[in-house]
Design goal:
Mean pLDDT: 79
Strand content: under 5%
Radius of gyration: 21 Å
Shape: globular
C-alpha cells in the first residue's frame, strides 16, 4: 500500500467544488439580504409592513439554505477523517462557549474558529462554524429564531479565516499577528451582524434606537449605529480583545497541533494498493 509522494502539496480536508461554491454563494447572498433587509426594503414595501414577521421568515429560510450549503460542501469531500476532526473541533468550541456566559465578551470559542479556519480552509470552516454554533445552542439552551443567523454569521467568520492570503507561505509570528488582526475585526463584524438580526424585533415605540419601518434609510442607519453603541459595543470589544489575546498566546501551539493532525490524517491523499509480491 502506498500514498502520494511526500513532496506533493496537501489539499484541504473539504475542497470547494463548483457546486459547493455555488451553494455557498447562494446562502451568502440570501444571508446578506436577511441581515440587511431593514436598509434594503423601502417603507412602502410589504417586507417593511411585516417588520415583526420578517426575521422569523428569514430565520426559517436561512436554516434551510445553511443546511443545503453544508450538505453540498460535505458531499464534495467530507470523508471519515474530516468528520472526526469536525466532531472534535465542534465539541471543543461548543464546550468553550458557555465559559464566558454572562460575562462581557469572554467568548474563547472565537479564537478556535479563527485558527481552525486558517489551517483547514474555508469549506471546512463554514461547516465547522455552523455545527459548532448549533451544538453550543443545544448545550446552552440558546435555541430560537436567532440561531440560523448565528450559524451563518459564525460560518462566515470561520470561512474568512480560511480565505486569508499566505496560507502556504506565511508562518511564524507574522501569521499569528495577521490572524489576531482578523479575529479583532471579525469579532466586531459578527457582533454587528447579530445586532442586525435582532434589531428589527424591537418595537419602534419602545426606544429611540429601535428600527422604524416608516423611517428613511439614513434615519434607520443612525438608529442602528446608536443601538450598537448603546447595547453591544462593550461586549463586542471584549470578544475582540479576548480573541486577540488567546490568538497571540495560544495561537502558535494550536496552529502547530492542527497542522500536525492534518498531516497525519493525510486528507484527500489517495491510497493505492500495490500488486502482490513477485
Amino acid at each position: 500500500m502506498s500514498t502520494n509522494p511526500p513532496g506533493r502539496r496537501r489539499h484541504r480536508p473539504v475542497p470547494l467544488t463548483p457546486r459547493s461554491t455555488a451553494a455557498l454563494a447562494l446562502v451568502t447572498a440570501t444571508g446578506f439580504a436577511a441581515f440587511t433587509w431593514p436598509f434594503l426594503a423601502p417603507p412602502t414595501s410589504q417586507v417593511a409592513a411585516h417588520s415583526q414577521d420578517a426575521p422569523w421568515l428569514f430565520a426559517g429560510l436561512l436554516m434551510l439554505l445553511v443546511a443545503v450549503a453544508a450538505a453540498a460542501i460535505a458531499e464534495s469531500g467530507l470523508g471519515p477523517k474530516a468528520v472526526a476532526m469536525l466532531g472534535v473541533l465542534a465539541a471543543t468550541g461548543a464546550a468553550l462557549r458557555p465559559i464566558g456566559a454572562g460575562t462581557a465578551g469572554i467568548e474563547p470559542m472565537f479564537f478556535l474558529m479563527v485558527l481552525s479556519g486558517r489551517v483547514l480552509g474555508p469549506g471546512f470552516g463554514f461547516v465547522l462554524g455552523n455545527v459548532t454554533m448549533f451544538a453550543s445552542a443545544l448545550l446552552t439552551g440558546g435555541v430560537g429564531p436567532w440561531l440560523p443567523f448565528q450559524m451563518l454569521a459564525m460560518g462566515w467568520f470561520t470561512t474568512g479565516a480560511g480565505l486569508l492570503p499566505g496560507r502556504e507561505r506565511l508562518r511564524g509570528r507574522g501569521e499569528v499577528v495577521v490572524l489576531a488582526c482578523y479575529g479583532f475585526l471579525a469579532a466586531f463584524g459578527y457582533g454587528t451582524a447579530m445586532n442586525l438580526a435582532g434589531w428589527p424585533f424591537m418595537g419602534a415605540l419602545a426606544s429611540s434606537v429601535a428600527f422604524d419601518p416608516q423611517a428613511a434609510v439614513p434615519a434607520n442607519l443612525a438608529r442602528f449605529v446608536a443601538y450598537c453603541l448603546a447595547t453591544s459595543l462593550g461586549w463586542d470589544l471584549g470578544r475582540a480583545v479576548v480573541t486577540v489575546v488567546l490568538t497571540l498566546t495560544l495561537g502558535p501551539a494550536l496552529l502547530r497541533a492542527l497542522r500536525r493532525a492534518t498531516r497525519r490524517a493525510a486528507f484527500e491523499t489517495p491510497v493505492t494498493f500495490d500488486g502482490p509480491p513477485g
